[in-house]
Amino acid sequence: MKMTKTLTAIALGLGILAGAGNAQAAGAGVKPPSQDWSFNGIFGTYDRAALQRGFQVYRNVCANCHSLDLIAFRNLGDLGYNEDEIKAIASSYEVQDGPNEDGDMFSRPATPADRWPAPFPNSKAAAAANGGAVPPDLSLITKARGAGGDSALRVSLFHPGGFALGADYLHALLTGYKEEAPAGFSLPDGKYYNEYFPGHAISMAPPLYEGAVEYEDGTAATTEQLSSDVTMFLAWAAEPELETRKQTGIKVILFLIVLTAMLYALKRKIWSDVH
């Protein structure tokens, strides 16, 4: 009887969790389609060419409004840039430093050790420049958008290599703008209709369009390509250690397999007289 009650309680709890997850998903808008990201799966890795193109998109489009507080210029080495290229990129920006001997703050060219400069000095300035909406920092955006509802569980089970669900959402958001809202939908002034944004009314104007960036490698800059590349870049920004973590995990698994085989052989040896 006690076991029956326990199983009933577990079933009830799972049902409540499932209901909560479904309710949250229902309020989150249309489910974004899954994309075939190169970093998916245990053996997945980042596409370096896509990362560099995504960095171009962020640098030329997204960085005008969105910060990237957790990324330093030196981290761009992970994208395939060499030391001289990183120094050149950093020196094209100015950062605030100080105080100097007179107690004043001053500006200087950035160095590889500096973090990416924010587009606004504070959140109030950001809100004033964007109609009252503060553009979010993009450092962890794919993690943040991949951890809602039952997403975290699904990420761990089906996407052990990275935050693919957050990347799917971000890609869908960037490609989900509609020129006109559906009939019967009341779109507030200053908002834009987006199929995948919760509530569908988003403050950010469509940031990407065909030819918005001229890729250095000659890739055609379609809206789909731009969205895919910048999403790949932001997935890397959220988890730059992904490839190292996977490599370590594979080594640990192989070690555990060998250790298990050795322990089994040892057990057979010790208990051979009994058997």
Shape: globular
Using DSSP, what is the number of strands?
A: 4
Q: What percent strand?
A: under 5%
Instruction: Provide mean pLDDT, rounded.
Output: 85
Sheet having the most strands: 2 strands, antiparallel
Distance between the termini: 41 Å
Helix count? 9
SS class: mainly alpha
Helical content stands at 40-55%
Low-confidence stretches at least 5 residues in length (pLDDT < 50)?
A: 1-27, 148-162
Give the full name of the CATH homologous superfamily of the domain at 39-71 and 116-239. Cytochrome c-like domain
Q: How would you characterize the overall build of this protein?
A:
- With 275 residues, the protein is mainly α.
- Among the domains are: 157 residues, Orthogonal Bundle (Cytochrome Bc1 Complex, Chain D, domain 2); 26 residues.
- It contains 9 helices and 4 strands; from the N terminus they run H-H-H-E-E-H-H-H-H-E-E-H-H.
- Helix 2 packs across helix 8.
- The N terminus is likely disordered.
Write the layout of secondary structure elements.
Elements (H helix, E strand, L loop, with lengths): L1 H26 L20 H13 L22 H9 L2 E4 L8 E4 L13 H7 L11 H4 L6 H8 L5 H12 L16 E2 L7 E2 L20 H16 L3 H29 L5
